[in-house]
Amino acid sequence: AVKLMESGGDSVQAGGSLKLSCTAAGDIYSNSCMGWFREAPGMEREGVALIKDDGGRTLYAESVEGRFTISRDNAKNILYLQMNALKPEDTAMYYCVANYFCDRLTYSKGVGSWGQGTQVTVSS
What we know:
Blueprint: E1 2-7, E2 11-13, E3 18-26, E4 33-39, E5 46-52, E6 58-60, E7 68-73, E8 78-83, E9 92-100, E10 113-114, E11 118-123
Parallel strand pairs: 2-11
Antiparallel strand pairs: 1-3, 3-8, 4-5, 4-9, 5-6, 7-8, 9-10, 9-11
């Protein structure tokens, strides 16, 4: 099992930036992906970005492409999400996931290990 701890969530104005971090402890499987999902009140959890174990491949949701950047530091076991040009519709609880699929951003309950989430609120 993997334990994940997210941090970096905050309240910002539209157009601002935030950088989320996720510290991982435990077994990260090779050929798996880590990533970020988000869940707004009353909405289903949706994928934001995924990155392969070697950092060589990424996948982004269309809604964040060009604004968000996912990266990882395997030496420190930390996953990042740099979020720029934030919009009110980015407001959500952001969750880190490990040992997830690499070819889809759809949420599959029961797959992967999940953190507790960090809240991002963007005001207009």
